[in-house]
Specification:
Layout (H helix, E strand, L loop, with lengths): L5 E5 L7 H15 L3 E6 L1 H11 L4 E4 L12 E6 L15 H19 L5 E4 L4 H6 L7 H9 L5 E5 L4 E4 L6 H7 L2 H17 L7 E4 L14 H15 L4 E5 L1 H9 L5 E4 L2 H11 L5 E5 L5 E3 L17 H15 L8
Parallel strand pairs: 1-2, 1-5, 2-4, 3-4, 5-12, 7-10, 8-9, 8-10
Antiparallel strand pairs: 6-7, 6-11, 11-12
Helix pairs in contact: 1-2, 1-11, 3-5, 7-8
């Protein structure tokens, strides 16, 4: 933990809104002066974005993350020289920019594992573009888990009033059902507990959503909740975790929003993403929990439909940068993410 952590910020796919939201978000982080943000990517892309959307700001290339320091009017960049702006097809799925996004995440992860940066904040990448470049991962979460050699890692979406950690994310629904095992649900509960304690909540209250409608109604609508989810909750409770479940997901989200739960464990992608993006699209943060490094991200995608137009809102990136800073500095969160 450090009082002024070095935050490595990746641009995401340069054909999307990543470069725009990154340069727009940096002034707020730099003005606070409590972290050392450094952009990881091609300095040419950053210069172009700053010239368009951050009038009067300059770009300084540094050779090492340790040289980064917050300075008004200046963006520090570790230049990877991996994406020629002349070859970027703005708003299009392209293997070239997919490769650049992949390479940047790999480099950032290597530096975080080596202790050269204290946290990673990732801009949005495009899964299809990354796949076209030959990298068959389901997104940042799977890629980071692979790079870190981690078995149990989870996607958490968080906002000031609502948080959800996912048992599975980018899978076909049929596969997601099979991923709901006693072991995996138990691991997700523990990851939720540990993360909330990291945020300063000594005894977090965890609600676990059922897989089926009405959490299966004791086997009327499927047996998975009784045979897999409930035993995982009981295992966690015996270990001293404050947990309840399986809960009907529709009611659980309303209860969590009202403050009954500090965090919910959800069984699959849409069970968590739909309510989170409805309620906290702008201030929500994506966090990969269970890695040996800190990684936060925006909650939105590449938004190819508005890329290059100057209308992208940087609020999500601002929240992701601040969340990473808090985790790296060991600063408790009064209200969570």
């Amino acid at each position: 933990m450090t009082a002024s952590p070095i935050l490595g910020i990746t641009l995401g796919d340069p054909a999307g809104i990543g470069p725009e939201v990154t340069v727009k978000a940096l002034p707020a982080a730099i003005a606070r002066g409590d972290s050392r943000p450094i952009v990881l990517g091609d300095a040419r892309v950053v210069r172009e974005a700053a010239a368009r959307w951050l009038d009067g700001w300059s770009v300084r290339v540094v050779a090492d993350p340790g040289e980064a320091g917050p300075a008004e009017g200046r963006i520090d960049v570790l230049d990877l020289r991996n994406c020629d702006p002349a070859r970027v097809a703005v708003g299009a799925v392209d293997a070239y920019t997919g490769q650049a996004a992949y390479d940047t995440v790999v480099r950032a992860t290597e530096m975080a594992l080596a202790g050269r940066i204290d946290a990673i904040v990732t801009g949005p990448l495009n899964k299809e573009a990354m796949h076209r470049a030959g990298h068959k991962f389901d997104g940042h979460t799977g890629l980071l888990g692979h790079l870190c050699g981690t078995k149990h890692y989870f996607m958490l979406l968080g906002s000031p009033r609502l948080r959800a950690i996912h048992v599975s994310t980018h899978l076909a629904l049929r596969e997601a059902v099979e991923r709901v095992t006693r072991e995996r649900v138990r691991a997700a509960i523990q990851a939720a507990h540990d993360h909330m304690r990291q945020l300063g909540i000594a005894a977090p209250r965890i609600g676990v959503c059922g897989l089926n409608p009405h959490a299966g109604e004791h086997g009327l609508f499927g047996v998975e909740d009784e045979e897999r989810v409930r035993p995982a909750c009981e295992d966690a409770a015996r270990a001293g975790v404050r947990v309840d479940g399986p809960l009907p997901a529709d009611a659980a989200f309303r209860q969590a929003y009202a403050g009954q739960w500090d965090i919910l464990v959800v069984m699959y992608h849409d069970q968590g993403h739909v309510p989170m993006k409805l309620i906290a699209f702008e201030d929500g943060v994506n966090v990969t929990v269970g890695l040996p490094i800190i990684r936060t991200s925006v909650e939105h995608g590449t938004a190819f439909d508005i890329a290059g137009q100057g209308v992208a809102n940087p609020a999500n990136m601002e929240a992701a940068i601040d969340y990473a800073r808090r985790l790296a500095a060991g600063e408790p969160g009064r209200d969570g993410p």
